[in-house]
Amino acid sequence: MLGRKKRKLLFTLTFKEKTRRKQMKENCNCAEETDPLDFIGIGTASINEDGKVPGEIISINEIDNENLRNWLSMIGWGGEKKLLITKEKYNEKTSYTIRLFTEKRMYSIYAHDKRYLGCVMGNRAPLPGEKYKRGADLPDGSFSYSTWVKILASIVGMESLKIEVPICDKEKNENNR
Questions:
Q1: Residue 96 to residue 80: CA distance in whole angstroms
Q2: How far is CA 167 from the centre of its chain?
Q3: Model pLDDT, residue 76
Q4: Against a cut of 0.90, is the pTM above it?
Q5: In the 8-state DSSP scheme, what is residue 176?
Q6: Residue 106 bridge partners (DSSP)
Q7: Alpha carbons 119 and 152: distance in angstroms, whole number
Q8: Strand ranges for the chain from DSSP E
Q9: Residues 6+ apart with CB under 8 A from 69
Q10: Could you say which residues of the chain have pLDDT below 70?
Q11: Cα(85)–Cα(92) distance, rounded to whole angstroms?
Q12: I need a surface site. Which of 36, 50, 84, 111 has the fewest CB within 10 A?
């Protein structure tokens, strides 16, 4: 059972979130039933109590770490428009969160003070029959190019679709060997 203070805080946060979402819907040119936050895949957990994404939103060129800036440029083809990058300071150390959106998922890549690099995947909508959005931890480790490649490879693996080869084509391929 939640204590009185926790219930009050939870109610206040929920009320602020509902108010903020209502204001966003009013300012949005999307369909009535579409919640703008759900549309881009940023859930309540990614938003602070003021209704904003934590940290300062920056561009790739504003990243202080040259390695991270170069790695992000690998995404290419309008990468600036495909990424939501935020910068935060913790105890004089810089932390970046890079959010990459696909049709069904959001990937959050975390880079902390040239020491840590990691990634988390979250579905942007619940799977059929479920009321919650699934997520998964992807590779993490030291701030290195090899960790970066592992993260990109896991994102490609998550986004790749399974290809079914028809049985008749399998038989032709086996006979041609």
A1: 15
A2: 38
A3: 63
A4: no
A5: T
A6: 101, 122
A7: 9
A8: 56-58, 83-90, 93-101, 105-112, 116-123, 135-142
A9: 60, 61, 63
A10: 1-53, 76-81, 168-177
A11: 19
A12: 50
Please report how the helices 66-73 and 145-159 are oriented relative to each other, as an axis angle in degrees rounded to 10.
30
Nearest to 151 by CA among 141, 166, 163, 164: 141
Angstrom CA distances, 142 to 30, 52, 110, stand at: 41, 29, 11
Instruction: For 38, list phi and psi in degrees, rounded to 5.
Output: -70, -30
Spell out the long-range contacts of 141-146 with Cβ–Cβ below 8 A and sequence spacing 24 or more. 141/116, 141/117, 142/115, 142/116, 142/117, 143/67, 143/111, 143/112, 143/114, 143/115, 143/116, 143/117, 144/117, 145/67, 145/71
pLDDT (tens digit per residue) in 114-166: 899 999 999 888 888 888 888 999 999 999 999 999 999 999 999 998 888 77
* pLDDT given for residue 115 in this prediction: 92
Residue 123 has which token pair? 């579905």
Residue 48: burial class (beta carbons within 10 Å; 0-12, 13-18, 19+):
exposed
Q: Which of 87, 135, 78, 81 is nearest to 110 (CA)?
A: 87
C-alpha separations of 138 from 40, 99, 170 in Å: 20, 14, 34
